[in-house]
Amino acid sequence: MRLVDFAKSYIKSSVADGSLCIDLTCGNGLDTLFLSKLVKKEGKVYAFDIQEQAVQFTRNLLMEHKCISQVEIFQQCHGSFTEHLPQELKGEISAVMVNLGYLPKGNHLITTNPRTTCASLAKAYDWLSVNGVISVITYQGHEGGIEENTAVKNLISESQWDCTTEFGNKKPGSPILYMIRKK
Ligand SMILES: C[S@@+](CC[C@H](N)C(=O)[O-])C[C@H]1O[C@@H](n2cnc3c(N)ncnc32)[C@H](O)[C@@H]1O
């Protein structure tokens, strides 16, 4: 099974009609679309990306699939996501998806970075409901990717979060999926 499919089946365990979810790196919109279909019209997905191109891709995909009404898209750094969500949603989020790295169809030099990634993950955990989940996929092939994976791993371990890990394959430097559940 691909890591992204592992992540999706894990996310499904915590999301139902009407749930609230966040995609911290919406990119081409595939994860946002997946979440929007799970939460249905009664729920809401908040999607973030720093690139205008990613926001456009995501909006177009959601419109094509008639799921845009349950999604809000922000062209903002995910480190500031708490400034854009209603404050009463703190503790109410069922799932957060984070697919790190660069936009596959875009500029490969624009990547996520350890500082804002870890800041947003720490806040995301705070905003989860009990039993809520976060899936994080790290890639180590791009510049800064190894440092980012190390920073994520250290954050999880220092925070003593309940986490299961899956590896893309056995080769060193392959993608890693972290699946975190709030107790
Ligand atoms: C691997 S792609 C995401 C793929 C996406 N989840 C999908 O389903 O297509 C990573 C994305 O992270 C975005 N990104 C990089 N730094 C960011 C930041 N500080 N805040 C939000 N998004 C960021 C990039 O622009 C890129 O689109």
Annotate the secondary structure layout:
Layout: H1 3-12, E1 20-23, H2 30-39, E2 44-48, H3 52-64, E3 71-74, E4 93-99, H4 114-127, E5 128-138, H5 145-159, E6 162-167, E7 176-181
Parallel strand pairs: 1-2, 1-4, 2-3, 4-5
Antiparallel strand pairs: 5-7, 6-7
This protein binds S-adenosylmethionine.
Keywords:
5 helices, Rossmann fold, binds S-adenosylmethionine, 7 strands, 183 residues, alpha/beta
Give a short summary of the structure:
The protein has 183 residues and is α/β, with parallel strands linked by helices. The chain has helices at 3-12, 30-39, 52-64, 114-127, 145-159; strands at 20-23, 44-48, 71-74, 93-99, 128-138, 162-167, 176-181.
Description:
The chain has 183 residues and is α/β, with parallel strands linked by helices. Helices cover 34% and strands 23% of the residues. It has one domain: Rossmann fold (3-Layer(aba) Sandwich). The chain has a seven-stranded mixed beta sheet, with helices on both faces. Helix 4 packs parallel to helix 5. It is globular, with a radius of gyration of 15 Å. The model has no long low-confidence stretch (mean pLDDT 96). The chain binds S-adenosylmethionine (SAM). S-adenosylmethionine binds next to helix 2.
Distance between the termini: 27 Å
Number of domains: 1
Computed CA radius of gyration, to the nearest angstrom:
15 Å
The unique ligands bound to this protein are: S-adenosylmethionine
Order of helices and strands: HEHEHEEHEHEE
So how many helices?
5
CATH-assigned homologous superfamily: Vaccinia Virus protein VP39
